[in-house]
Amino acid sequence: MSSNDRPDTVDEGRRSVLAGGTALAVAALLPLAGCTSSEAPDAAPAAPSPTPPSAGIAQAMSTFTTKDGVEIYYKDWGTGPVVVFSHGWPLNADSWESQMYHLAANGFRCIAHDRRGHGRSSQPWDGNDMDHYADDLAQLLDKLDVKDAMLVGFSTGGGEVTRYVGRHGTKRVKKVALVSAVPPLMVKTDTNPGGLPVSVFDGIRQGLLANRAQLFLDIPSGPFFGYNRPGATPSPGVINAWWMQGMLGGHKNTYDSIKAFSETDFTEDLKRFDVPTLIIHGDDDQIVPIDAAGRASAKLVKDSKLVVYEGAPHGITDTHKDRLNADLLAFARS
């Protein structure tokens, strides 16, 4: 039996457990809604419509099966022009909840999936690489027959979106936003001297194998949200939410993904971009330093705009969510 051919009882049991975990996650994630951002929103988002979705609109919670037998979970909120979100490592679609709520409440249809091996999607032993990630995204857009979408990728998700454009083009895409994204290339090489030494990623792999649960506390407690900087005020809720999402991912899948996000060269993919592209990056990003990432990508992508968040860490989806929400909404409306 392959890793993807599981008995129905196992799949149903796993979905039941995850559904219960999702219910518990609501309480854990409440602090993210208003306690983590140091910025006040320019204006309160419009209240979501109290009326139920009309017939024919995709369900808010659903799954589909890829051509190689991997079950992918996705959420589909709101109606209107489509915005598709790809999440970072080792998280899942829930990491986009603030941005999805804001845009959906302001007239956009927001779609986000759990990458294979992450969150509520199944955990294949093989295929944990950028080509498969991009092809899964392509199959999701094909399944939902998405047109004129705005693709938004955070961190590893930025790599997924970039490889999607490189492999599948922009026939379904109207614009792209890369947020704290890993392209063009994270690891240091002879042709990428500004990258991070491979020893950094070896250390993450060693930490994952030695004590994954502790690693997934140490990362959000320290550099991810800039909580290791003087004067920072860590949010236990944000840290716990990050840990919970990370632990839902498969052990092998999150291990393999380290190589995928750090060693994949997206240079040629970025050169294929032919739609307006917004690149947002914090200049105090300790996870994906801006010079070898956001600034380098902006030089490769035609018709791109680089927006630098001064003093911002990697995890700006939470620490600067009000500013990010406003910037993404403005770009979506443009």
Q: Classify the helix fraction into a percent range.
A: 40-55%
Distance separating the two termini = 50 Å
CATH architecture: 3-Layer(aba) Sandwich
Strand content: 5-15%
**Shape annotation:** globular
Secondary-structure map:
Layout: H1 8-29, E1 61-65, E2 71-77, E3 82-86, H2 97-104, E4 109-113, H3 130-143, E5 149-154, H4 156-168, E6 173-179, H5 198-221, H6 236-248, H7 251-263, H8 267-271, E7 277-282, H9 294-300, E8 304-309, H10 316-319, H11 321-333
Parallel strand pairs: 3-4, 3-5, 5-6, 6-7, 7-8
Antiparallel strand pairs: 1-2, 2-4
Helix pairs in contact: 2-11, 3-4, 5-6, 5-7
Report on the architecture of this protein:
Strand 1 and strand 2 (71-77) form a beta hairpin. The protein is α/β, with parallel strands linked by helices and 334 residues long. The chain is globular and about 40 Å long. Helices cover 41% and strands 14% of the residues. The protein has one domain (59-333): Rossmann fold (3-Layer(aba) Sandwich).
